[in-house]
């Protein structure tokens, strides 16, 4: 690689060619403030906050987009630069609802931080802000245009990472706004509610719909028996919300914190993930042996289900009829659990903590009700919302003593732990399907070719003497490639795992802010280390799952399973 | 002084609908000559001519041509930017309506020299007459074998299509124009890469103004060296000037670079209506500087204009006489850019509305000294930190007015109740 020599703030540095000024400066411990820039996303160069002075250039250049050249002399903090930067932020604030104390992003807003860093204690420009309507028309995502600073990150994620093109920049000039296309509501526009827009929004313009109040109300209602389930991907990310290092595994402290919050029982969604593998694995075996529709596609991810129902209604019979682990748990919590404990199901309030915003939508679906008058999962919190409640309660998280999950949904396997990362469901399924079909133990449980951040991954397994191809895709733009093959009848696979978010659930739309590929990789590493550390690593070896079948469900894909654990999908492509 | 008619020589002399009349008046002669030359020779001639882009920025045309020529892509686009939307500019319309074949001939020569495979003329949507004339002329040129496969029996094939936008000023900015051609909203892109590296559909693309392409046949005819003797050392050849405002004879005039603004106004334009005094002259268009009467002896020249931290613009001269208020003019300019900003970058999107509010304070005589400071600071930030040419040039009028008409500002502050 060719090196380029340049001077940044009188420091002589040498960096690889094609490096941007921003990255070059960062490499030498000089951070240039940014706003629209987001690691791993496209360079937009819209906000102009990162402008710097380059000797010989009359104007200022945006450091995020300008590559270094030999002999360049850069000043990142000259009076001219500082004045421009300050003016730009003042201009943004002049068209922004600056009622910061009542903003959901107060104290974690990138614009607020920037204004403080730049020392803006007075705005020279009068406010030209005009209030507009908030889009609250769905259970997952709230879009408040009054806080939008038109940085374009959300539009970039929606168009270029997910390929869903729900969000767009509309209008021009001062009247530019970010909205769902045709200025409609998200719910009218094929939005999958993946929440990736919310996870990259630097301000409070796009957030998950906050359900913490509903949960607090249930927790303080003496008549309610409130139980909670926690998804696999939350335990490797919640730490970031409470000041721990990225990738810290906080399972035991998390359970302890939730006990303090007042949950009567703290259960593990991993249990339902193991159950999913039994049902889904058997469904796959049945499809393969009975000449059913193949490839079979996973059904755990609600963003993917929304995508398929609105964009690929013709391939819905490829999707496993299994409910997601969240909803399998919900159904059992409102049927098996009351039977076992003697508590009236009407008094049971089920909360789930998910890395996901689409789960909020999933829980509200009509199909997800054992009792048609109330949902199986009453409220869904994101990882961020759980973090918020822990802070509201004033819990000293770091010093908590670790606690185990409660029974009967507390024992889990490594197979369930890896559900939270791309490739994990597939790997877990293979571990079980292989042993059920081949009737011998699988040697080597780690499927390295299915791990990591590559967009589409493939593997081959031997099932009853036949080599079968499987594939894994994450992000909807990658899913599209596999879906098109399925639609055209050219898919070479027997089983396909699809996760909406980059990296799988560990990169979900409800995860702590600041998720980048580096952060994703840390969370993935922790997930696999959890798996490796567990004594049970195959779903069909989970003793509580075995007991559940023995006591209640009787057999996989049986009558009760079908009633409680399976669902059906609808063509929603014309509901626009 | 008189006009020097090189590219406007056929104006009014031929029927623009008739390719026969164009051919009789030396038309397509230079294309034949170019086809007999080596490609690099043509670029050499353009380089020797020191032709600079006539759309406003004055970028050397030969550098763009060399940039495109060295790209190895099979598909290369030649775009003629005819999205003339700068207030005060109408010379491209004259070229399209009076001599459409000259533009087509220039584009074919440039395409031949650079390996261009596909031409597009992007015409301002409001210019319906230009659009139909160009379409007609392209069909005619195709019938005569100047466009299409194997032009004039050579191995070279090239064709041109006319496209237009939906009426947005910023689509004259090269990347906004490319986005518009791709069917997207007209918003600029981040550079680099530049269009010659990655333009329409990420293919190498050369974009030049109507007048630039119209000048190419003349350069082939008289040679680059001879062309460079016309005008001044830094600004060679002739320039079409759109003269408007309170002058007796408004219109398009072709002059060699180096002529003074006063000569254009008084000798070609016949002076001011009713012999009133000049309050100000805006150069280049809405994005150009505002100068007072005592500066009219300055010559029209790219380098001379850079002193205003501005470019020559597309060659407009807008004359405003003493009856008009400078702040009303400035407000119109600012509100125009506020309306036409694409909204992508912060300084341009949010800055213009604030500039307008500050100017309004002076109109209402409510301004204070601090407002001059704010106005100057904000105008400079928009100028220096905006993403594309629109925001980088839009505050020129305000910046120059603060330099040459500061007394007017002070007067409004010191006499808040007068008037």
Q: What would your notes on this structure say?
A:
The complex is a heterodimer of chains A (576) and B (419). In chain A, β16, α17 and β17 form a beta-alpha-beta unit. The mean pLDDT of chain A is 96. By secondary structure, chain A is an alpha/beta fold. Chain A contains 20 helices and 17 strands. Chain A is globular. Chain A folds into three domains: 126 residues, Roll (Ubiquitin-like (UB roll)); 69 residues, Alpha-Beta Plaits (2-Layer Sandwich); 353 residues, 3-Layer(aba) Sandwich (Rossmann fold), CATH 3.40.50. In chain B, strands 6-5-9-7-8 form a five-stranded mixed β-sheet. Chain B has a four-stranded parallel β-sheet with strand order 3-2-1-4, sandwiched between helices. In chain B, a hairpin with a 5-residue loop joins β5 and β6. The radius of gyration of chain B is 22 Å and the shape is globular. Chain B starts with 18 loop residues before the first helix and ends in a 5-residue tail after the last helix. The mean pLDDT of chain B is 95.
Q: How is this structure best summarized?
A:
Chain A has 576 residues and is of the alpha/beta class.
Count of strand segments of chain A: 17
Give the biggest sheet of chain A. 5 strands, mixed
Q: Name the CATH architecture of the largest domain in chain A.
A: 3-Layer(aba) Sandwich
Return residue spans of chain B where pLDDT drops below 50 for at least 5 consecutive residues: none
Which residue ranges of chain A are poorly predicted, with pLDDT under 50 across at least 5 consecutive positions?
A: none
Principal-axes shape call of chain B: globular
Residue share in β-strands of chain A:
5-15%
Shape of chain A: globular
Q: So what's the CATH class of the largest domain in chain A?
A: Alpha Beta
CATH architecture designation of the largest domain in chain B: 3-Layer(aba) Sandwich
